[in-house]
Amino acid sequence: MRFTSVLTLLVALLIGSAESAQAGTTWLPQFQSDQHVYIDPALAQHSQPLSKDGFIDGRVDQLSRKHGLSIYVVITQQGDELRDGDYKNWARTMVRPQLYDRWVGVSGFAADRCVILLVVRSKAADHASTAITCGDTLRNWGLTKDYFNQSDSPVNKHVREVRISPFDGIQAVLTDINAAIDVKKPTASSGVAGTNAEPEDDGAWSWWVWALIIFGVILAIYLLICFIRWISNGGSGGSGGSDGGFFI
């Protein structure tokens, strides 16, 4: 009986430890096809509370539709596995392997046209780590890893704003990304992409037609002059001088 009680106590302790460890890790959501903004429930009890509202949902949806993208925003709180001194790398080390890779293959997730913005806030709210990843569509438009790592990129330019006022900062990041796409995205008129490019101007090849017409007119006038001379000379072919051939 005593052995059974001890065994039960050990099992309960192991389960409790596992649940405690799991609860302490950084929260990351499962993908939902009808959801584009995800906020860690723990942030509602944060020293600077943050909860989902209709405004950020509407803005993300509006910014997504501009270029036919699927934009997702995830805001979460620092878990126990994240060290305070390494806060700048929190989001960078999580956005691709732990979030994007988890969502790839899930029904409704358009990996090629996606933009995922991950914000990890520190427990004390004195730091925030921000990172972004995107699909092949944006990479083909020139919005690559090297582009986003530049100091004046949409993400790096608004890091402080994201920490102080997350929704305003996120909106600024996404607005700048759309502005960058406006500049970098190939257009039909450039001839790089699309099927609505203007046809080539026929003037590019018709110059030689005009040259032949002009040459023909000159030749006809020359032949007419030669014929008139021949008639005026009584039809004689001459002595083979310069008046007798087609050369002037």
Description of the molecule:
The protein is α/β, with parallel strands linked by helices and 248 residues long. It has 9 helices and 4 strands. Strands 1-2-3-4 form a 4-stranded mixed β-sheet, sandwiched between helices. A hairpin with a 6-residue loop joins strand 3 and strand 4. Helix 2 packs parallel to helix 8. The longest helix has 30 residues. The N and C termini lie far apart (131 Å). The N terminus and C terminus are likely disordered.
Unreliable spans: 3-22, 188-205, 237-248
Order of helices and strands: HEHEHEEHHHHHH
Radius of gyration: 37 Å
* Structural class determined from secondary elements: alpha/beta
Overall morphology: rod-shaped
Question: What percent of the residues sit in helical stretches (DSSP H or I)?
Answer: 40-55%
Instruction: Give the tally of β-strands.
Output: 4
Number of helical regions: 9
First-last Cα distance? 131 Å
Spatially, the strands of the biggest sheet line up as: 1-2-3-4
Sheet-strand content, in percent, reads: 5-15%
On the 0-100 scale, what is the average pLDDT?
78
Largest sheet: 4 strands, mixed
Task: Based on the model shown, name its key terms.
single chain; 248 residues; alpha/beta; 4-stranded mixed β-sheet; 4 strands; rod-shaped; disordered N terminus; disordered C terminus
